[in-house]
Amino acid sequence: MIIDGKGMITECNGIFAEMAGAKDEFEALGNLDGLSIDVFMPEFRDLFTGAIDHGSEIVKFRQPWKDRIVTISVFPISIGEFAGAVIQDVTKNEGRREEIAAKARDVIRKNVYTVQQVARLFGEHIAETEIMLNEIAGSYESHTVGKRLRSGDSEEYLNG
After folding, report:
1. Are residues 14 and 34 both part of a single domain?
2. Which domain covers residue 71, as residue numbers?
3. N or C: which end of the chain has fewer CB within 10 A?
4. Are residues 81 and 98 in the same domain?
5. How are strands ordered across the β-sheet holding 58-65?
6. Nearest Cα to 59, choosing from 80, 51, 145?
7. Does residue 68 sit in helix, strand or coil?
């Protein structure tokens, strides 16, 4: 698509007309020449103004536009007079990307749950092991510490 210094469309193709919701007008007239960019893309007017007035080349990725997601590249053709734009509809790609991201979040959630379960089981196992080892150690100590035979016996202790 090409826009003049007054913000009027001077050239576009049928794909743009369809994305802009002006397919019928395009088919009837064969073009959208002379229509204002403000009618079809007011949210991108500043991009065209920058390209025409200052020679700025601007690319905006994944921009919402109407019911679509687009990538728009605006570039100067003749500073002060014309700017061109390439607009790509990436809605399907973004939808697929969101689907993949949702699946990735689900996998992460399941992995975190699994790790939590393993950690819980490991913690229980460690606690049980500690209790058993303390019981064994306590039992072993009670057999190795000397005991008095009777209260009147000497201070000598017997082991075992």
Report:
1. yes
2. 2-89
3. C
4. no
5. 9-11, 2-4, 82-89, 68-78, 58-65
6. 51
7. strand
